[in-house]
Amino acid sequence: MVGDRANGIPARVVKIHLTYTMVSEVDRLHAERAIDLSVTKYCSVRDSLDPNLPIEWTLVLNGE
């Protein structure tokens, strides 16, 4: 995870980038769907953050 913070006090998080690394037989489409749901629907931490906070993610599947 990499995050950017605002300059100032409090130094709030203004952007997050998550990297998911998977070694699996699952195909890319299903892995991406699972990640998208985890970030947008099922993550209770996400619900506690500013809804306008950009959260981006990358999938590394089977060492690509």
Can you put this structure into words, describing what you see?
Helices cover 31% and strands 33% of the residues. A hairpin with a 7-residue loop joins strand 1 and strand 2. The chain has a three-stranded mixed β-sheet with strand order 1-2-3, with helices on one face. The mean pLDDT is 92. The chain has helices at 28-42, 44-48, and strands at 2-5, 13-22, 55-61. It starts with a strand and ends with a strand. It is elongated and about 45 Å long. It is an alpha+beta fold and 64 residues long.
Average of the residue pLDDT scores: 92
Structural class by SSE content: alpha+beta
Q: What is the straight-line distance between the termini?
A: 18 Å
Question: Largest sheet, order of strands side by side?
Answer: 1-2-3
**Number of helical segments with 4 or more residues:** 2
What characterizes the major β-sheet? 3 strands, mixed
Radius of gyration: 14 Å
Secondary structure blueprint with pairings:
Layout: E1 2-5, E2 13-22, H1 28-42, H2 44-48, E3 55-61
Parallel strand pairs: 2-3
Antiparallel strand pairs: 1-2
Summarize the structure.
With 64 residues, the protein is an alpha+beta fold. The chain is built from two helices and three strands, in the order E-E-H-H-E. Helices cover 31% and strands 33% of the residues.
Describe this protein with a few key phrases.
64 residues; alpha+beta; 3 strands
